[in-house]
Amino acid sequence: MSGEGLVDAERRRFNRLALAPSLIVLFVIAGLPAIYLVVISLTPFQLVNPGSSTDFSSPLRNYLLLPGDPRFVNSLWVQAKLSFWGVLLQVLFGMLLALLLHTQSRVVEFARTLFLIPMVLPPIVVAIIWKLIYTPDISPLYYAASLLNVTMPSLTSSVDFALSAIIIADTWEWMPFTFLMVLAALQTIPEEFSEAALVDGANRLQIFFYITLPFITPILVISGMFRLIDSVKAFPLVFLLTGGGPGSVTEVTNYYAYLLAFDFNEIGYSSSVTIVMLLLVVAVSLGVVWMGRRREAMA
Amino acid sequence: MSGGMSGPVRRSASPRRLVAIGVTLIVLLSPFLWLLQMSFKSNDLILQFPPPLIFTPTLQNYASLWQGAFAASFVNSLMSASFSTALALVLGVPAAYALSRWAGRGKHALSFAILVTRMAPPIAFTIPFFLFYRWIGLLDTVTGLVLVYTSFNLPLVIWMMQPFFETVPSSLEEAALVDGASTRVVFLQIVLPMVAPGIAATAILCFLYAWNDFFFALILTRTNARTAPVAVVNFMNYEGWEWGKIAAGGSLVMAPVLIFSLAVRRYLVSGLTAGAVKG
């Protein structure tokens, strides 16, 4: 029927008109910058030396320098430690919190919202909050320690504790995220499962390990992966609490790239560091998408 | 055991559990509450230990903030967050509708591209934007911030609005089309009003993401377009550690976020996970 053909053509024209502006704008403000970043990473561009932005004489120079740069290698290692402990603690405590709050009560439902506060705070405010906690003169933590006759070292300027201080603050900020995801998963477990297990004489610990845990494992993995991706972005905490120090104990790759570009003016080299970081993020994101699809296929 | 018969996984709360929840809540929120109480104290009182349990709250920190340059930064934050939200909605809502009605190839590739834009560390965009703005003179302008914020808000809108459009029954649209209405009219007069709550939730999330930004504003602004988060941090560097003002500034920056995000908490997770998991 020609009428339907007309409707289809009209619908296609509408779709094109609706999509085109977004795709063009996205290309200009996300696509072009990404391409430009790659191009710049092939030059030895320094801000003080404008001519260097078009110097493609040895395009892979930056990338070849990377493996021999001890500060870059160290930053990857710091990032790995921060990500590993941060994700582990967030998944563990988020799960425990979800188990604690998985119950039916009006009061508890209201409390759940309050538990989300650390996650929704602006990241810089989280950094300010922990700056207060870690500054000895004004910190209730140091006061409490002095009451117990414990002399606490200055956490954020200590080689041994600076990274742990950041991990603690990061865990505080993002535990609500894993909590929320796990809670959603817990609410989908059919009650008959644990009821049947109870009738069979299983205790609570057994129910947790044989019923609850297998059920929520996929969501634990996925929320952990999301935190893993986002942990690469940890900037305000490092910026405000330690500035990457002492030395380069807390200098994550993101922070190193920032220093390179906007402190040392090594734009070209910083871009190559950023590209490597971006590739790592894309690899993890692909993993998340793949797992999400597999989960859909299984469901 | 009557309370336990509904199953241990989902029973009603026992008093012991309620106490445990209360204690956990107080412990977890104490760092946040510490900042809040500090913003109502004079500087002498802040340095006083043991901290007095009862003190006369003062608004002097907030008053001095409002008389200083902080007010202008607050307005900059409001403007850049609102404009980028509006721009992202105007562009992204029709695109999300078209995508939700489109079963063609390329949908997965497009979703993944959108996911990557959301996941990329901000520094990846900062370097090109910084160089480009320096060249065309958009450094330290609200316009510059709006464009950067749109680069992550537009993908968020496109991704978040699709499920809302999918809930609109296609029979409604077909009936109107048979009656001779154009797709544009169907979209504007039938579909859009039905997804209004979704648009509101998406708008709030966009606003929050832009409002919360620190990194872009730190690098792309100096004094004219400086946003509130950057202004608060500047209290630490230049004005000699005025803890009362820092606490008050921090509290002001988090106020809109707390109000809005509690209003849209149902959508918080889907906004954060941006595409890979279907809630």
From TrEMBL, chain A:
One of its GO terms (biological process) is transmembrane transport. Keywords: Cell membrane, Membrane, Transmembrane, Transmembrane helix, Transport. It is found in: Cell membrane. It comes from the Bacteria. InterPro entries: MetI-like, MetI-like_sf. GO terms for cellular component: plasma membrane. Residues 76-288 form the ABC transmembrane type-1 domain. It is a multi-pass membrane protein. The chain crosses the membrane at residues 17-42, 82-101, 113-133, 161-186, 207-229, 267-291. The keyword Transcription does not apply. Gene3D superfamilies: MetI-like. Its main location: membrane. It holds the Pfam family BPD_transp_1. Belongs to the binding-protein-dependent transport system permease family. This is ABC transporter permease. It comes from Bradyrhizobium retamae. The lineage of its organism: Bacteria, Pseudomonadati, Pseudomonadota, Alphaproteobacteria, Hyphomicrobiales.
Automatic annotation (TrEMBL), chain B:
GO terms for cellular component: plasma membrane. The keyword Calcium does not apply. GO terms for biological process: transmembrane transport. SUPFAM superfamilies: MetI-like (SSF161098). Gene3D superfamilies: MetI-like (1.10.3720.10). CDD domains: TM_PBP2. It is found in: Cell membrane. Belongs to the binding-protein-dependent transport system permease family. MalFG subfamily. Part of the ABC transporter complex MalEFGK involved in maltose/maltodextrin import. Probably responsible for the translocation of the substrate across the membrane. This is Maltose/maltodextrin transport system permease protein MalG. It comes from Bradyrhizobium retamae. The lineage of its organism: Bacteria, Pseudomonadati, Pseudomonadota, Alphaproteobacteria, Hyphomicrobiales.
